[in-house]
Amino acid sequence: MRALCWNGVNDLAVQTVPDATIVNPRDVVVQVTLSSTCGSDLHFIDGYLPGAAPGDVIGHEFTGRVVEVGPEVSRVRVGDRVVVPSFIACGSCWYCERELYSLCDTTNPHAAAQQPVLGYPTGGIYGYTQPFGGYAGSHAEFIRVPFGDVNCFTVPDAVDDTTALFASDALPTGFMGADLCGITPGDTVAVFGAGAVGLMAAASARLLGAERVIVVDRVPERLEMARTRVGAETIDYSAVDSVQEQLRESTGGRGPDAVVEAVGMEAHGTGAQHVVDRAKQALRLETDRATPLREAVLAVRKAGTVVVLGVYGLTDSFPTGVVLNKGLTLRAAQQHGQRYAPRLLEHLAAGELATSFLATHPMPLEDAVRGYELFKDKSDGCVRAVFAPSGT
């Protein structure tokens, strides 16, 4: 089958790889209808996140149709149109029983590679380096889904494929970010980053009752989406002296009640600290350019909540003392998609959330290398490149 493979730093190619097959009796094979780029892919494509191996099939956000099921699969059937969360869950370990699916203790066969850094391993994820399980990814014609009954969610007829696609990762990640804010009526939520996850966090915050949502970014097309598609207020950080001051002024001097950081380790920014971050990252002296993470901690009101959705490595110069002295609540997680998928599919079917506008650049899988170039450079207004293995 054809698939997009990582062959080295900034070296991608669409090539022929072995077919996806049933390995364990609870596996499912899905014919991929659509798959999407994700900002977290860039971290290992650019070489900042180690552990990718030449020939790895990448991609973790997808929807498709079931074409084969293992002998112990009971709920999912051949022909089902499904969406699959990016993290793989077993459904029966201590963490899965508590709906902390991305922390599954069962699905990462390379757990030992993570333990020296994280202490305890995460669950496995499709197409996201060997330390995260080494699973083949979704930028392919077919994909093996372990524990199919736990990880496949049937897409309602009222939800089209493009809309369903983002219920795999961007929407549940953003929704979880809003959920972790603990929003109460009258709250103001600021979202740093107007990529797909940030936009979904902003839309979810509104759905969950935030009175005001303020999105911070620098890309005009994305800020326009935040205003017109989500109904958020916006701040262009490249056009103001201080985002912190802008947020303070717009909230009567108190600051937002919660801030969602949806950017991650390759953030852009301004100021001297950002210049230092860029130099240290280029020299591999640190993994992260963490300007928005630090600004989120500074900008949120006292006793507020900061939710980290962006992917980071080992950040230095983190304002730990600010967290303490302001009495902040700091929350973070990789997405627990299986917890949210049924609810989100209902919201999508009812028209209460919209996602298809994120797919700014649909194209055949054979053009995926160009798609990642557009996505990485944020050129031509690209928010997400979406690949169709069928070519249409």
TrEMBL record:
<dbReference type="Pfam" id="PF00107">
    <property type="entry name" value="ADH_zinc_N"/>
</dbReference>
<dbReference type="InterPro" id="IPR011032">
    <property type="entry name" value="GroES-like_sf"/>
</dbReference>
<comment type="similarity">
    <text>Belongs to the zinc-containing alcohol dehydrogenase family.</text>
</comment>
<dbReference type="Pfam" id="PF08240">
    <property type="entry name" value="ADH_N"/>
</dbReference>
<keyword id="KW-0479">Metal-binding</keyword>
<dbReference type="GO" id="GO:0008270">
    <property type="term" value="F:zinc ion binding"/>
</dbReference>
<protein>
    <submittedName>
        <fullName>Threonine dehydrogenase-like Zn-dependent dehydrogenase</fullName>
    </submittedName>
</protein>
<dbReference type="InterPro" id="IPR013154">
    <property type="entry name" value="ADH-like_N"/>
</dbReference>
<feature type="domain" description="Alcohol dehydrogenase-like C-terminal">
    <location>
        <begin position="196"/>
        <end position="266"/>
    </location>
</feature>
<dbReference type="InterPro" id="IPR036291">
    <property type="entry name" value="NAD(P)-bd_dom_sf"/>
</dbReference>
<dbReference type="GO" id="GO:0016491">
    <property type="term" value="F:oxidoreductase activity"/>
</dbReference>
<keyword id="KW-0862">Zinc</keyword>
<keyword id="KW-0560">Oxidoreductase</keyword>
<dbReference type="InterPro" id="IPR002328">
    <property type="entry name" value="ADH_Zn_CS"/>
</dbReference>
<dbReference type="InterPro" id="IPR013149">
    <property type="entry name" value="ADH-like_C"/>
</dbReference>
<feature type="domain" description="Alcohol dehydrogenase-like N-terminal">
    <location>
        <begin position="25"/>
        <end position="149"/>
    </location>
</feature>
